[in-house]
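Subject: Sanity check before I submit

Could someone independently write out the structure tokens for this chain? I want to compare against mine line by line before I put it in a report. The sequence has 351 residues.
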Amino acid sequence: MVNKNNSKISHSKGNMASYGFGKFVIEMMEMAFVSLGFFFYEYEVGLNVWLVALGYIIFAVWNAINDPLVGYLTNRPFKFTKKWGRRFPLILFGGFLTVISYFLVFMPPRVDPISGAWIIFGWLVFSTCLFDTFNSIFFVNYVSLFPDKFRTIEERRTATGIGTIVGIFGVALGAIIPPLLYTFGDLGSYMIQAGGIILVGIIGVFLLIPGSREDQETIDRFLDTHQDKTERESFFGTLKMVLKQKSFVVFIITYMLYRGMVISMTASIPFLIGFNENMRIQMIRIKGGSIRKVKIILPLETFGNVKTIIVSIKNIDKINEVLNLLMDFFFCIEYFPFLIEYRVKISQILK
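---
Independent answer below. Compare away.
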């Protein structure tokens, strides 16, 4: 027998869209960071590739550790919890600092990459790990809010669908903005693209505010549950218990391999394009073109019956049209002078 409460929806679609801007920020920051970081330090800064690889290995190890660590440390009431909520203050804190710290990744010390290699290496490790620490505070609390905020199956399906659509635009802007603002060989231009990403990211975090607020019922539920706990399991005790779950371990290994493949592919795009300025728009189209995968994935992961799958596919076609217009708009900005010159030449030939 189906519980009628499973179909209850307590939040408006506008509120769900606001919550979805968390996914927008996450996807945009990840696309921009992954596609440029390694390339920037190896080719633009000139740091030895083995040191860049070592720095990213350290970053990856920290990335694997800090998510469960942040989750453990933030899973308790703070002084601000009763008034502001359990997750909301941490979401804003992590969100704003994630966006701002992105700038630090692209402003390494201006030293010789050979004699000052270890200085640049230290900055690489420091800036990427700091960026990921703030991102973990933001991400862990953002995704943890989801089951507390959306309590029914129907509401979770609807919120996931809307959030995924909003997140797609984050992927698009993370792919489009940086190539339009940086120039190969000009280190200063990479700080300009970082500024562009930061501006859009801050707007995204502000739009997230209404959807990430916790109502008093959610706050009281957590406080009551926490008061019932007489003793808290240690971090390593919890970790040991989790690692005994074989299905979870298999999932983690599989997901790690999947993420490694996706990140390697995304990070390879600047190397594929090279330093040809005329190929810059191809970088935008290659990264933006991956958005089309939502035609299949979004309907299947979001909706629970055939009718809604068919309707959602039609809606995805409309979304793709909007994204294509967005990409063409940036294409025109980048190549408008060339298009004018080309049109004049064609007109002369036809005459």
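---
OP: Matches mine. For the report I'm noting this point. The chain has a mean pLDDT of 80.
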